[in-house]
Design brief:
This protein is mostly beta strands. Helix content is 6%, strand content 55%. It has a single domain, classed as Porin. It is built from 2 helices and 20 strands. Strand 4 and strand 5 form a beta hairpin. The chain is globular and about 70 Å long.
Length: 420
């Protein structure tokens, strides 16, 4: 009888705890077909265009209870056909996109620890790179302060390749050794501003003398500004980079941008903007000086044209970029919209004595339609009109057409919600 009574008490306690908790489970299925004929780089002679279907599948779980939030995002990324039928194992398998816990330390303070997306402002320096099927996340910890819209985040990350017995040299490719950053944000009536300071450490490995392996740090300092008044919105980024690059050159680089958007009707928005990213003459550092700015961990697909010619796995430590652009968004009806953008690209630094700075002009068109709350479809076409400067940088003067098209289905069902 005592055991039965104890079980009843335990069951009642569990129910009481559950009554204070909230659990949500949702999913994402996102297949995308792409046709590539000059995507990221100029299309060469005697080659066939690429076409494929990539797919991202996610299962997301969010659990919240008093002073604790726990989030888990499992992810599978594949190309249709990258494993055979009747396969006994997958090529990539299910990965962990996010797995973090957020602890409320005090009314205005919280600590978020684990694998997480880090997104700030317009994604220029820190973003989730959501267009890429794999997206970006960090193994990090951050202390957050939030008081009536005034926010301060302190972030920390330290990466290692394995549980070593000696040494701290990172051998994992494509990641940093450590970062520390401060982000502060405040809002006023028509104006908001953010300040970011990032200390970014990259692992240098000396192939001859391992005793010279070291972490080389660069610093990025800057601000993101927003102004809104009636139908007008102005946005600006001002960033400066200094310290050392991975080759131990002195960094002295900058990014400056301004964009204005005006809503001319409730359904039509027009924008004009320019972004200047510093670079090196002839595309390479010289005399131990590097003037090329790197956007680091931003969602670079969002900027400088959708064909990813700049800062998406390319164009780093290069001649920089001046991007002057215009865009328009037209809401066709409550379910669909159409976006246009035109970018004019030129180099920020000298390419070569015999090359013009003009790189080309890109046209981007994107259409999006919402079938229902959980289902959306979008499609896009981009075309790059190449100038001589781009041919010099890419080492390709074949003169072929460079275009890219895609269509993507996004399904986001809410599988379960417990809100007590």
């Amino acid at each position: 009888m005592k055991l039965k009574k104890s079980l009843k008490v335990l069951f009642f306690i569990l129910l009481s705890c559950q009554a204070q908790a909230q659990l949500t489970i949702d999913a994402e299925l996102r297949p995308r077909f792409e046709y590539r004929h000059g995507f990221k780089t100029l299309f060469p002679d005697n080659e066939d265009p690429a076409s494929f279907v990539s797919q991202r599948t996610r299962l997301n779980t969010n659990y919240e209870i008093d002073k604790l939030s726990f989030y888990l995002s499992l992810q599978d990324v594949r190309i249709w056909g990258d494993v055979p039928q009747l396969n006994s194992s997958d090529k990539n398998g299910v990965g962990l996109h996010q797995a973090w816990g957020k602890i409320q330390l005090a009314p205005n303070f919280s600590l978020k620890v684990g694998r997480q997306e880090i997104i700030y402002d317009d994604h220029r320096i820190f973003g989730d790179v959501g267009w890429a099927q794999q997206a970006r996340s960090h193994d990090a910890a951050r202390l957050e302060y939030n008081n009536s819209g005034f926010k301060i985040d302190l972030g920390f990350a330290f990466n290692q390749s394995d549980e070593n017995l000696t040494g701290t040299t990172l051998t994992t490719p494509g990641t940093y050794k450590s970062i520390q950053y401060l982000w502060a944000h405040d809002e006023w009536n028509k104006f908001s501003a953010s300040l970011l300071f990032l200390n970014n450490g990259l692992q240098f490995i000396d192939d001859i003398n391992s005793n010279k392996n070291e972490t080389r740090y660069s610093q990025t300092l800057g601000t993101h500004l927003n102004f809104k008044a009636n139908n007008l919105k102005l946005t600006s980024n001002l960033y400066y980079q200094f310290g050392k690059d991975i080759a131990n050159n002195d960094l002295n680089s900058y990014l400056l941008s301004i964009e204005g958007n005006y809503k001319i009707t409730p359904k039509t928005n027009l924008g004009l903007g320019a972004e200047l990213i510093s670079g090196n003459d002839s595309g390479l550092p010289s005399n131990q000086e590097n003037y090329a700015f790197t956007p680091l961990y931003g969602t670079n697909h969002k900027f400088n044209g959708l064909m990813d010619y700049f800062y998406v796995g390319n164009h780093t430590n290069n001649v920089g970029l001046l991007d002057i652009y215009a865009n328009a968004k037209v809401v066709l009806n409550e379910k669909s919209n159409l976006n246009f953008a035109v970018h004019n690209f030129s180099a920020a630094a000298e390419i070569s004595p015999n090359s013009e700075k003009q790189l080309g002009t890109e046209l981007d068109i994107v259409y999006a339609y919402k079938l229902q709350k959980e289902i959306g479809i979008s499609a896009g076409y981009s075309h790059l009109f190449v100038s001589q400067g781009m041919e010099t940088i890419k080492g390709n003067s074949d003169g072929n057409t460079n275009n890219w098209g895609w269509i993507m289905l996004t399904i986001n069902p809410a599988l379960f919600t417990s809100n007590n």
